[in-house]
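thought: user wants a sequence for this fold. calling inverse folding tool.
action: design(structure=
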C-alpha cells in the first residue's frame, strides 16, 4: 500500500516545489499534479511527485486524519503510524 502524505507548498521554482511535511522540508516535482499549485497550497506527495492538490475545504480534515495516524500513544501497535513516524524522523535526521 502507498500512502500520499500531505504537505504545504513553501516555494515554487519551475516544476519543483519546496514542501513542508510536518516540519520536514522536501523538494517535489509538479509535473503530474492534477491542477495548478501555488505557494500556500497543500498537496499529496507520492515518491517525490505532487500527485494531487488538496482542495482548501479538505485541508483541515486531511491534516486531522494524519494527526490521528501520527498519534504516538497507539504507534507501537499501528504499523502505518510507525512507518510514517519513521519517515518523518529520517527526514529530520538528514538536515
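)
observation: tool returned 95 residues.
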Amino acid at each position: 500500500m502507498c500512502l500520499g502524505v500531505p504537505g504545504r507548498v513553501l516555494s515554487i521554482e519551475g516544476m519543483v516545489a519546496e514542501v513542508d511535511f510536518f516540519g520536514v522540508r522536501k523538494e517535489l516535482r509538479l509535473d503530474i499534479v492534477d491542477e495548478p499549485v501555488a505557494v500556500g497550497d497543500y498537496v499529496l506527495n507520492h515518491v517525490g511527485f505532487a500527485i494531487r492538490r488538496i482542495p482548501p475545504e479538505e485541508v483541515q480534515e486531511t491534516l486531522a486524519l494524519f494527526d490521528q495516524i501520527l498519534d504516538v500513544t497507539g504507534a507501537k501497535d499501528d504499523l502505518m503510524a510507525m512507518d510514517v513516524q519513521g519517515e518523518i524522523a529520517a527526514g529530520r535526521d538528514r538536515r
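thought: summarizing for user.
answer: Here is the designed sequence. The mean pLDDT is 82.
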